[in-house]
Amino acid sequence: MEDQMKVFGSNLDDSERNYQNVVPPNRTRAMKAKSGEPSFVRIASHKSCISSRTSKIILYILVCVSLLMATAAFLLAFLKFLPQCPKGWLKFQTNCYYLSADQQPWEKAMSNCQSLNAHLVVIDDKNDIDKQEFLDHLKNSSYWIGLRRYPKDKWMWINGKSFSETTQSIENNEKENCIYNFWKDSKSRKKKTACTEYFSYICEKEQL
């Protein structure tokens, strides 16, 4: 009898234990909901990671744009300090040249060049061969140059240099005291004439 009671008690204890292990439905739903929280957290974390990457990319783009703008501003500021020619002038080596559209006597042509902070072009036969070729391609008509005869029958350039007669001899003539360039046989040549004649002219000055 005692053995039967023990068996019954043992079965009862097992039932109680099984009952204790039974989870109510509402608690099961709560546990499921609780077990679902990590998935939501993972999604939120993934979105946060994407947002962080997007912010970094935008920041990188903004930095690159800022650097490009700063570089462009620096280059523009630097170019302002580089020597350059005024608008309407042509650059050759370190000088600027202005080709007139009108014709004037030598003195007036020189005055017009001076008003532009320049002078009539100087073309020394020995030292300015490249310059002469440059001007020949620009203007193949007659034009005044900065060469004339001063007192004591001395031919000089307006910059004070003496004229080196390498292409032709200039005869003394009281009425022919100025020199102009003219185009002949596909070549530029110098010729003396009266300073009151009308020709085009070329002004010359250093780059600003």
TrEMBL record:
Domain C-type lectin intervals: 92-204
Keywords noted in UniProt: Lectin, Membrane, Secreted, Transmembrane, Transmembrane helix
SMART domains linked: CLECT
A Pfam family recorded for this sequence: Lectin_C
Matches recorded under SUPFAM superfamilies: C-type lectin-like
Membrane topology of the entry: Single-pass type II membrane protein
Coarse class of the protein's main subcellular location: membrane
Membrane-crossing residue ranges in chain numbering: 57-79
Keyword Protease in record: no
Single GO molecular function: carbohydrate binding
Subcellular location: Cell membrane; Secreted
Protease among keywords: no
UniProt cross-references to Gene3D superfamilies, sorted A to Z: Mannose-Binding Protein A, subunit A (3.10.100.10)
Cellular component per GO, a single term: extracellular region
Name used for this protein in its record: Perlucin-like protein
Organism: Pantherophis guttatus
Taxonomic placement: Eukaryota, Metazoa, Chordata, Craniata, Vertebrata
Originating gene: LOC117659403
